[in-house]
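Hey, can you fold this one?
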Amino acid sequence: MASSKVMETSVGKRKSSVARVRFVKGNGNISVNNQKLIDYFKRESLVMVINEPLKIVDFNNKYNIFVSVKGGGLSGQAGAVRLGISRVLEKINPDDRVLLKKEGMLTRDPRKVERQKPGQPGARKKFQFSKR
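Sure. Predicted structure:
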């Protein structure tokens, strides 16, 4: 694919997932790692999460969206794709920033898995206390 066709690109991150998003002139198809959106993200709820920023700005289907995502699980990857799409939409039309910002689409979710501490069964869980 020629690089002259690429309209805008951006990166989104969530947990340990990283998504590279490219918008190319087209008819509104979304492909993730060379698969259809619904084939990659099997759950309808994750597809809804990804389409949220497109619905907020009433985005018409002038662009195909190509996403390359890696790391983490499906939920984190969906969040990363959503952030990447939101950032590209802001680049295309800076007036949409107000709408996207109000809905929290441009905020990177900083939460990550807490590490397990030594001598404990989990990050916060302690072994059962016994008085005797």
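The mean pLDDT is 92. Let me know if you want another pass with a different chain boundary.
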